[in-house]
Design a protein that fits this description.
heterodimer; A: 151 residues; mainly beta; Immunoglobulin-like; six-stranded mixed sheet; three-stranded antiparallel sheet; 36% strand; B: 566 residues; alpha/beta; Purple Acid Phosphatase, chain A, domain 2; 5'-nucleotidase,  domain 2; five-stranded mixed sheet; 19 helices; 31% helix; globular; nucleotide-binding (chain B); 5'-Nucleotdase_C_sf (chain B); Thiosulfohydrolase SoxB (chain B); Thiosulf_SoxB (chain B)
């Protein structure tokens, strides 16, 4: 049997359920980036282990206002072993929070794709929470240039 | 597979052969030089194998022969520090055993440039390039593949006036097999698509995708049969086009290096029986060098964008990197013996297109003349005179940009001038008249507005830091190509070895001799802003107006930039 799913729908399906979309808008000038605090709250102070998460971001953003972000987390996604949540933060935006993605074994895969806004060159960090209480992470630096002198 | 030593030795042999026809310096007259450099010598090549690739790139719409001085300063960073193509002048000639004073030395290095230019004359001219192509085709028949690395359709008056039509029409006569692109995109998405539809050969850009769903905008690759070998050519446009040039002109297209997609394209070609895989690239040399070590299965990368010319291939693993210069100055010929899906033998020559020695192809010359005829009188009009060499290439400054910066300071009544680090623009010799065409050759592009605005000292430093990182980031994948933005009315220090944010220091305003204050506003004039809606007169009109008041220029080339960590 063939099922026709448009790419846009497929995108939405792949993203699982997204809540708490805290887009990095223009925060107050005195606000300090809170990505460290967000990570601490998410992991309960536990240090996440590098691995299992793979962040896909461009080395250089063509447009800081809409940077394509995708991630996959290595997991069988069974009742016994699966990803429950993925936190994505950016350490150079006025506010650190980007999104938290929620998964269950019924998600099938732990992966999502979206667009994010980055104010300047900075690190984007993804942290995956597993159902056994362990945490895994990946970091990618994205360069956001003023641009204009190539050739 | 040919070793690097073999290639170097071969290039030395070529150099020695050329030396036989060469000269000891600029003391011998031009007529004699012309007598001694012949088309036959320049094209001499002992054929090898079953495939010949001819590569031209970065012609920048120069249909007519020009002078072109290579850079004195072309710094490499990270792993590229001090290795080709980041070797210039005497060191470059010594590295490749090119005899000083020979035609190839004149073409490759800045040493004795003025004297040699007087002896040897101009280089390039699309009608001369056509003669080289025709001669190789006559010799090698169906073994020849002609590939154009892009930056072909823009940066002369006629290419701007005809929106690239002059270049498309004239290049068509050379019958290229494929091309890729960069400055082409500054004609805007609609015009590029319209021209591509008329080409009759593929416009290959595997890394240009529709932004939303990442569908291919152009063909990524094409397959050719030459000398019994199935050849896959994959095209790679400048990955940073929407950053380096106005994104608003190509709003729905996304670029990037796209290694994964490229690897898939290579694997598909191999699985489809390709015996030879060629990447026709506009990545820039250092990006291609890194890419060659990360993407498997590419036999040849024809590099472009950074305008490097190398007399021998650079080998990374099993991949050969070819660098063919710019402005029609060179044609690279690469003969390959391809058997059982592998390259068994290689022979290469960087052919300098000496315009006085190589005959123009009559049909191409006629097509060029036809496109120029309506503008010829205007283009020939003398608007000034230079007492010193006007050139652009160099990481930090060029005398051509000094003239443009002076024009911006005077005509736009500014304290500081910024001129983009473009690598295109031919050279003028001391004593030469400056014609309207010469000014257009240094400025012709689709976003020429000369803006005037207030910028704080802090913002200026930020801009210099940002551009410096685009050139000197030790990771080539984070380099855009292009040289450092040129400044007028300002001096500064740069430590190229430092990270972003700490390279630039000691900013001093020339007018007052005072350090720039981070929070103080300065009047800045510049051109080629990538922002939509930038206002101001076209930069060429600014230069014309300036030359009208001060028709004689004599920039010394003394840089206001102090370089550390190189």
């Amino acid at each position: 049997m063939t099922m026709t799913v448009s790419r846009r729908e497929a995108f939405a399906l792949g993203a699982g359920v997204v809540t708490a979309m805290a887009l990095g808008g223009a925060g107050p000038a005195w606000a300090k980036n809170d990505s460290d605090e967000l990570i601490k709250a998410f992991t309960g102070g536990k240090a996440p282990v590098k691995g299992k998460v793979k962040l896909d971001l461009p080395d250089i953003a063509e447009n800081g206002n809409t940077v394509p972000l995708a991630f996959t987390v290595e997991s069988p996604m069974t009742d016994a072993s699966h990803v429950t949540d993925v936190l994505v933060v950016a350490d150079g935006n006025p506010r650190g929070g980007i999104a938290t993605f929620h998964f269950s074994p019924r998600s099938g895969v732990a992966e999502a794709a979206t667009r994010i806004r980055l104010a300047e060159t900075q690190n984007v960090i993804a942290i995956a929470k597993m159902n056994d209480g362990s945490f895994y992470t990946d970091t990618r630096q994205v360069k956001v240039t003023i641009g204009g002198c190539g050739g | 597979m040919t070793t690097r030593r073999d290639l170097l030795q071969y290039s030395a042999a070529v150099a020695a052969a050329l030396a036989g026809t060469g000269l000891g310096g600029g003391t011998i007259g031009r007529a004699l030089a012309q007598q001694r450099v012949t088309e036959a010598d320049l094209l001499a090549f002992e054929p090898l194998g079953n495939v010949t690739i001819l590569h031209v790139t970065d012609i920048h719409a120069q249909l007519k022969p020009v002078y072109f001085r290579e850079p004195t300063v072309n710094l490499g960073v990270g792993e590229a520090k001090g290795v080709p193509p980041h070797v210039t002048g005497k060191a470059l000639l010594e590295a490749y055993k090119v005899p000083p004073g020979s035609p190839l030395a004149y073409a490759l290095a800045d040493i004795d440039f003025e004297a040699l230019a007087k002896s040897y004359g101009r280089v390039g001219g699309l009608d001369r390039v056509a003669t080289v192509v025709e001669a190789v085709r006559a010799e090698r028949g169906d073994r020849v593949l002609l590939l154009d690395g892009g930056d072909t359709w823009q940066n002369s008056f006629t290419s701007l006036a005809t929106k690239g039509q002059d270049m498309v029409d004239c290049m068509a006569l050379l019958k290229p097999d494929a091309m890729t692109a960069h400055w082409e995109f500054t004609l805007g998405a609609e015009r590029v698509k319209a021209l591509v539809d008329t080409l009759g050969f593929p416009f290959l850009c595997q890394n240009v995708r529709e932004s939303e769903f990442q569908d291919e905008v152009f063909k990524g690759s094409a397959t050719f049969e030459r000398g019994g070998v199935k050849i896959a050519v994959i095209g790679q446009a400048l990955p940073y086009t929407p950053i380096a040039n106005p994104r608003w002109m190509i709003p729905d297209w996304s670029f990037g290096i796209r290694e994964k997609e490229l690897q898939a394209e290579v694997d598909k070609a191999r699985a489809g029986g390709a015996g030879l895989v060629v990447l026709l690239s506009h990545n820039g040399f250092d990006v291609d060098r890194k890419l060659a070590g990360r993407v498997n299965g590419i036999d040849v990368i024809l590099t472009g964008h950074t305008h490097d010319a190398l007399p021998a291939p650079v080998q990374v693993g099993k991949t050969l990197l070819i660098a063919s210069g710019s402005h029609g100055k060179f044609v690279s010929r690469l003969d390959l013996d391809v058997r059982d899906g592998a390259v068994r033998g290689v022979r290469h020559k960087l052919i300098p297109v000496m315009a006085d020695a190589i005959r123009p192809n009559a049909a191409v010359a006629a097509a060029i003349a036809k496109h120029r005829a309506p503008h010829e009188a205007m283009l020939a009009e003398v608007v000034g005179r230079t007492e010193t060499t006007l050139y652009r290439r160099g990481n930090f400054n060029g005398t051509l940009d000094d003239v443009i910066c002076d024009a911006l300071l005077a005509e736009r009544d500014a304290e500081i001038a910024l001129s983009p680090g473009f690598r295109w623009g031919p050279t003028l010799l001391p004593g030469q008249s400056i014609t309207r065409e010469d000014v257009y050759n240094a400025t012709a592009m689709t976003y020429p507005a000369a803006y005037r605005m207030a910028m704080t000292g802090g913002r200026l430093k930020e801009i210099l830091e940002d551009v410096a990182d685009n050139i000197f980031n030790p990771d080539p994948y984070l380099q855009q190509g292009g040289d450092m933005v040129r400044v007028g009315g300002l001096s500064y220090t740069i430590d190229v070895g430092k990270p972003i944010g700490s390279r630039i220091g000691d900013l001093v305003l020339a007018r007052t001799g005072q350090p720039l204050a981070a929070d103080k506003d300065y009047t800045v004039a510049g051109w080629a802003s990538v922002n939509e809606g930038t206002e101001g007169p076209a930069i060429w009109d600014v230069v014309f107006s300036h030359l009208k008041k001060t028709p004689t220029v004599a920039p010394t080339g003394a840089s206001t930039v102090k370089i550390l960590g190189a």
